[in-house]
Structure formats: structure tokens, C-alpha cells
Design goal:
Strand content: under 5%
Distance between the termini: 36 Å
Number of helices: 17
Bound molecules: coenzyme A
Number of strands: 3
Largest sheet: 3 strands, antiparallel
Radius of gyration: 22 Å
Shape: globular
Strand order of the largest sheet: 1-2-3
Order of helices and strands: EEEHHHHHHHHHHHHHHHHH
């Protein structure tokens, strides 16, 4: 008879199901497929409020009144320019590195420059400057001159303007394109204790500074199992090419034991609460951009995946084709996620500092038993 070892620790691989702390920022309730920011359903915020209002809400706990919004926007808009030395740094980065590497380096540089380290001031500065960093990098890789930020546009419109100018073909001049992009920022802004947010909280829990926490969070978001999935979705769609081939492709991938990016979620099991709003925007943009192929691809892949595995799309699945149809280069999809999620990260860093406890879990050692380098000497 084997006597059970009652001292063996219970291992929560991937911290799956572990509640590590309380938060008042957002609530994911998978039982009713719900995500709320400070109590408001995310789909209502995405359609009723601008991304700036949502950022204010996440940082301050309440939606701004018109005076508060005006002051907040003014502070954000006047902080958008970047130091010429940072611009030089962006231009000195290897052309074949991922734009997330440029962004991670830029956050770190901004942290070295800003020794103030007040969480909310730093968050606002990053919210204002990171779109400029990303747009400059996109223009650099296209061999085009940079377009300086405008103070007359909201965050979404300004970003598209810095990427594509304000010609008649630019999404910055199309109301529905700007609206779809703005909604995507709100949907990406916050999602409780996901991997990158938890990374930011771990770093903050050592009482390190906000820029270090966000630099680490950018690194965590880069991974294909997290933020990088939106890029992989579009790459897969382009590889498949023809919607008629989508179902066979999905089945072959599943049968080969490969994961299909843009599907599945650690917390949601009956669907991602953000998908319907992003999907609606994606369908609308497809209708106005001649992107029916991507809608057909989207439907064919989702149907085949559900039929074969029962696994449903996550937010990255509609985000991939949406950004592609707006004309954004694929490697910039995850940096856009950063622009939005910087808001959630900053809210969590402030919450961590306010009631801090060093995050330091335990491990179950399974290596060799105790031994000596020189057993003779020990004897
Ligand atoms: N494609 C194919 N199979 C998938 C899958 C996907 N996207 N997501 C989960 N599965 C399968 C796993 O292979 C596993 O099958 P098994 O039990 O037969 O081994 C089962 O579903 C459970 O998956 P697991 O990876 O253990 O669940 P998780 O909670 O750890 O994973 C994700 C959550 C997000 C990491 C996972 O769904 C995934 O890798 N998705 C693709 C990446 C992605 O889109 N990330 C963005 C998340 S917002």
C-alpha cells in the first residue's frame, strides 16, 4: 500500500485558477461572458465613449465630465512630441527587428529621461508619446518621412494621421475608420490579471519604477500566446489566401496538434466578451474597403474551428483583419495593442503601489538531492 505524501505541494501550473489579489479596475466574468471597466460593460464603453474617456475612467475610477476631459486631452495632446534623440534612436534600430523591440527600447529610454516617475504623469506621457514612436517606426520602415503629431486630433485619429497623412485615401480622414480604430483601442485597453499586466504588477511589487514595469509588460505582450496573436491571425489568413481553403487548413492544423492563433482563452470558455464589438467593426470596414474576402475567411475559419474543437475566437481574431484593412503593416498590430494596454498597465501599477506586497511565489524543487562537489573532503 502506498502512503500518500501529504506534504507534496499543489502546483498551479501557469497560475491557472489562482486568485493573487483584489482589483477594482476591471472584472472578467466568464460565466456570463462579461468584461467591465470600473463597472461599465466594455462594449458600451467602446461604442459610447472615446478611448480618451476610457483612459480617464481606468485611471481615475469615474468617467470625466466635459471640463475634466478637455483638461486631460489638452495635457495628452501637448505631450505627443518626442525628443529628437529618441527619434534618432528609433532610426538607429535594426530594420529587421520587430517593432515591439523598438517600442520596448523606447519605453526604457523614456524612463531614463523622465526621472519623475509619478505613475499617472508617466502613464499620460507614455499614452501621448508611444503612438508617435510607433508611427515613426512604421514610416521609417516604409522609407517615408515622419509626420509630426497633430494637436487637433484625438488619439485614434492622430495615430492614423501620423502613419498615413491626411490625403483622401488615408484612414485618418475617414470617420468610420477612425471610429473602428478608436473602438479597438478601448477593447484592448484592459483585461485584469493577464500575463503582461501581471508582469507589470510583479515588477511594481519590488517598488521598481513605472517605466521598468511597462518595459517588462511590453516584453510579455510580444509573445504569440498573448499580444502577438493578432499578427499571427493575419499571417495565417494571408497564407490560406482563399476562403474556400480555410476549413481544410483549420482541420489540418488541429489534426497536426498546432494551435491556431486568435482562438481560445485562459479565462473565457463560452466566448470572448470583446469579440462581437470588434467583429462588427471588422465587418463594417470590410464593406467599405472591399474586404469581403477577409469576412469570408473569418467566418470559414471560425466555423471550422468551432465544429472541430468547440474553441471560439478571441479579440485578436477580428483585430487582425480589421487592422490589415485599415492599411496597417502586420508587425505593427501588437505595438498598437501596447498603445491601448499602456492604460490598463498604468492603472494596475498604481493599484499595486497603493497596497503593495512583494510578489514572490514558491516552487516545487525536483532536481538532484543534496550532494557534495568533493565527497572525500566532506567525509
Ligand atoms: N488552437 C488549437 N487548440 C487550442 C487552442 C487554439 N488556439 N487553444 C486551446 N487549444 C486546445 C489545446 O491544444 C488544449 O488541448 P488538449 O487539452 O487536447 O491539449 C486545450 O485546448 C486547452 O488549451 P490550453 O492551451 O491548455 O489552454 P490555456 O487556457 O492554457 O490557453 C491560450 C489559453 C490563449 C494560451 C490558448 O487558447 C492559445 O494558445 N490560443 C492561441 C493564442 C492566442 O490567440 N492568444 C491570444 C489570447 S487573448
Amino acid at each position: 500500500m502506498t502512503i500518500p505524501n501529504t506534504n507534496r505541494p499543489v502546483i498551479h501550473k501557469g497560475l491557472n485558477g489562482v486568485v493573487v489579489d483584489s482589483t477594482s479596475i476591471s472584472d472578467v466574468d466568464p460565466t456570463i461572458t462579461s468584461l467591465t471597466y470600473r463597472g461599465y460593460p466594455v462594449q458600451e464603453l467602446a461604442t459610447e465613449c472615446s478611448f480618451e474617456e476610457v483612459a480617464y475612467l481606468l485611471w481615475n475610477g469615474e468617467l470625466p465630465d466635459p471640463g475634466e476631459l478637455s483638461l486631460f486631452s489638452q495635457r495628452e495632446r501637448t505631450s505627443r512630441s518626442i525628443d529628437p534623440r529618441l527619434q534618432d534612436l528609433i532610426f538607429s534600430m535594426p530594420e529587421n527587428c520587430h517593432p515591439m523591440d523598438v517600442l520596448r527600447t523606447a519605453v526604457s529610454w523614456l524612463g531614463a529621461r523622465d526621472q519623475n516617475h509619478d505613475v499617472h504623469q508617466s502613464g499620460l506621457s507614455l499614452l501621448a508619446k508611444l503612438p508617435t514612436v510607433v508611427a515613426y517606426d512604421l514610416r521609417r520602415r516604409r522609407g517615408a518621412d515622419v509626420i509630426a503629431p497633430s494637436r487637433d486630433r484625438g488619439v485614434a485619429s492622430n495615430f492614423l494621421y501620423m502613419c498615413f497623412g491626411d490625403g483622401p485615401e488615408s484612414p485618418a480622414t475617414n470617420f468610420y475608420d477612425v471610429e473602428a480604430f478608436d473602438r479597438s483601442l478601448t477593447l484592448y485597453a484592459e483585461h485584469s490579471f493577464n500575463a503582461s499586466t501581471f508582469t507589470a504588477r510583479v515588477i511594481s511589487s519590488t517598488l521598481s519604477d513605472v517605466y521598468s514595469a511597462i518595459t517588462g509588460a511590453v516584453g510579455a505582450l510580444k509573445g504569440p500566446l498573448h499580444g502577438g496573436a493578432n499578427e499571427a491571425v493575419m499571417e495565417a489568413m494571408l497564407e490560406i489566401g482563399d476562403p474556400d481553403r480555410a476549413a481544410d487548413w483549420v482541420r489540418a492544423q488541429v489534426d497536426a496538434g498546432n494551435k491556431i492563433m486568435g482562438f481560445g482563452h485562459r479565462v473565457y470558455r463560452t466566448g470572448d466578451s470583446r469579440v462581437p464589438t470588434m467583429e462588427e467593426s471588422m465587418r463594417r470596414i470590410a464593406a467599405s474597403h472591399g474586404g469581403e474576402t477577409w469576412v469570408q475567411m473569418y467566418d470559414a475559419m471560425a466555423e471550422a474551428m468551432e465544429e472541430r474543437t468547440g474553441i471560439l475566437p478571441n479579440l485578436d481574431f477580428p483585430a487582425g483583419p480589421l487592422y490589415h484593412m485599415l492599411g496597417i503593416d502586420i508587425p505593427f498590430f501588437t505595438p498598437i495593442f501596447v498603445l491601448a494596454r499602456t492604460v490598463g498597465w498604468t492603472a494596475h501599477i498604481a493599484e499595486q503601489y497603493a497596497d503593495n506586497s512583494l510578489i514572490r511565489p514558491l516552487s516545487n524543487y525536483v532536481g538532484p538531492g543534496r550532494r557534495e562537489i568533493n565527497p572525500q573532503a566532506a567525509a
